Amino acid sequence: MREYGKAILPCSIGGRLAVGRFLNIGNDRYEAFSKTKYFIDKTEMLNVLLEKDADEKFICSSRPRRFGKSITANMMTAYFSKGADSRSLFEPLKCTKNELFLKNMNQYDTIFVDIQAQFVTAAAIGTNPNQYISRLVVKELKDAYPEWIQEEDSLNTALGIINQETGNQFVIIFDEWDYPVRELESKSKERSDYIDFLRILFKSSDAMSYIRLAYLTGILPMVRAKGQSAVNNFHEYTMIRPKDLGEYIGFTEEEVAWLCGQYHADFQKMKEWYNGYNINGKAIYNPLSVVRAVAEKDFGQFWTETGTYEDIGELINRNFDGLREAVIEMLSGNRIPVNVTGCKNDMHTFADKNQVITTLIHLGYFAYDKAEQEAYVPNKEIQEVFYKYLENETGDNLSRYMKLSEEIAEAVLTMEERRTAALIQQVHSDFISSIEYNDENSLSCTITVALLALFQYYHKPIREFPCGKGFADIVYLPLAKYPNRPVIVVELKWNKSAVTAVTQIKERSYPASLKEYAGEILLVGVTYDKKTKEHQCRIESFQKQDE
To answer: Long-range CB contacts (< 8 A, 24+ apart) of 282-285?
Structure first.
């Protein structure tokens, strides 16, 4: 032991504190990541954290799977931990622009715990997970501060004693903090005990003194009980309210464009497949999917390879009024209003469809437009996830709807006008009767829902597509791998004939503007008569003329 001012500090080895499994684990993990081929510098987030006031030092940052949560946690550990000398690691990066950066680097005892890993291990050996975590961390604290700590001390007691005796503060980082909340549905006591463990650690009378920064990261925000956060001194940063951590949740459009330029990837396809998350008005991309697409020089469903469809199925199958219909609407390209308040954030307790949709936003399956308070499917990757889920469903309304939509797509492509009109009528009455027809826009919602099955062969429907002398209501462009499929141009009319709709398409020269896409163009006019409450359909083929 040696004296430093009035404080007594633990012995060091080579000028550095000895590292452990949890306490001051060093910077190896982040250093390895920073040397990867597709590294994106997100270190400016550290300066955002450093500049927060003392009453903002308890942070819960949630984001979907594979959105860089663990990388961020490792970055913070490398920066704060006394178990490392990270100057050379961070010096080339953006974070060094802030004068607070060097002052705080490697100055704090840092505790890093992967909650999921420790809960799984504790279950395997048949011990209480909270006690297991506490016991392991306290043992390392005793090794570092043998003068004051006993192995039987609780974790919060040990931290309080060290702070009292030395003045030292701790940075505590919990990765996958919400694992017990998400996965222990049938073990309510274990979940409750875990929340109590968090409460004692972060809300004890000494916590404000011994904690320099507490950072919990996971998929879900803080679990709520009776409308209040169960650990209510945490400031939450979520997919719905990201605040000033928004651009660090995923890759920004500028970062994705840079990667595409560096490695010759198609930026437009990247946008179609992985863009769509609206964070503080900025486009945010899933980092995993972007990196896989760049590395493999291909586009596909990468993100969900790391999980299953169980999340979707379990949540959608909760029989809340209008939930399935809302999902169908969003899949077809429509947006729906959603009330994101009141969600319990525990994957198990839901009162209505709004709370389920809110959870799916946190999980990354839907995106959220805060300004409009609307939910929507963000991109092609997620659309494919849902489509495959619907394909595999049997025996319920969703599978019946998918079969009906496939029938409508077939009827359009084979130019069966009466059948198309009758099937659209059926979709409206059986699945989305909540859409009340009062204009062409409401009719547009029904048509995109009815033609959802076109998704597997066509791009997302484009509304108000500029063509010729005006704008086509809806245009379906075939995917590049289906060049022989026709372009579909849909014109909608209210209380007019279907012939009138198709005539408008031809008079305004819509097909002439689309001839570069395909040899054949289907002109589809759909109308709804308010008095008879019937749909009509007119379908004509426009063949591209050789020049």
So the answer is: 282/246, 282/247, 282/252, 282/253, 283/252, 283/253, 284/246, 284/247, 284/249, 284/250, 284/251, 284/252, 285/250, 285/251, 285/252, 285/253, 285/255, 285/256
